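Progress against Task 2.4 (sequence-to-structure conversion) is shown through the following example record, which the project officer requested during the mid-term review.
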Amino acid sequence: MSNKQRIDWIDLAKGICIALVVYNHTPKPMGFDYTADVIAGSFRMPLYFVLSGLFFKQYEGIMGFVKRKLNKLLIPFVFFMLFTSLVPCLIRGTSLGNYFHDFFYYRDIALNEPIWFLLCLFEVNVMFYLIQWCAKAISTKFGTAIVIASSAVLGLLGLWLGVHRIELPLYLDTGLSSLPFFAFGWWLFRHSRFISSPSHPVKDLAVAAGCALLVYLIARPVAWVSNDFTRANIWTTHLCGCAGTIMILSIAKALKYLPLVSYWGRYSIIVLCTHCSIILLLNALTRDLLTGSASVFITFAVAMLISIPLIMFMKKYMPHVTAQKDVIKI
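Structure tokens generated for the chain above:
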């Protein structure tokens, strides 16, 4: 399979992932069936971390690595935090002190909560870089095993913190809980044939069906943004996340490419950072027009469609703050 083909179906997986994220943030009326939300929520964020870990590289050393992650993650985070969260809150009369107090202590990024992922992903990248650096220093032969074991141990530490409601600032506890998924993506790309092997649609869809059944049976409510877990779901959290990820990757591998969905996946960072603003605007305009369960699907569909011209505009006129071009020269 060529590199272009691999990128195509991975973009499709990213598109499915970001569509699940947008659907999750679409307001739902009282009485709406939340079963699908629980199932999707069990692997939605793990999938995003796995997809991010697939192409992890150390590049030219720690400084070059950090510069790249600043360009791709922190600069978009700061930009969208300012212009889709902080400035609107100040206009509405929120004090600067209250805004940052809520952000640091309650993880509340008012009006645009999903951008928390960019900050958390930056932290996970740095943690994983340090794990790899230490593993190489300890043993070249067993480096991969050390990386996987270290990530698993830190992931369990993150879950333990979540169960005992011990919160670390700036999503660091969520970053710890998510490390195993990032490491799983890194392992899938470099040490397995899952990504590079040719697609066999029947086999891939059979694998997806098996994983879907497992997720359906063991999925429990989780809250990744607050790293909130219970003893009842701590042992199924990583299993469910990995099974759901393999399910989506297998479906994407079988289908290879879907025009709109793959496009959303290619520019998923723009959709991630803008969809809440779109949904807020749609709700303000259609509050008295759309009601009931139909409003959920209509709002979701319109938000995804509006993201298409927004992607075109932002990648052309705002490439430096949407991870399309570098602000800091490498």
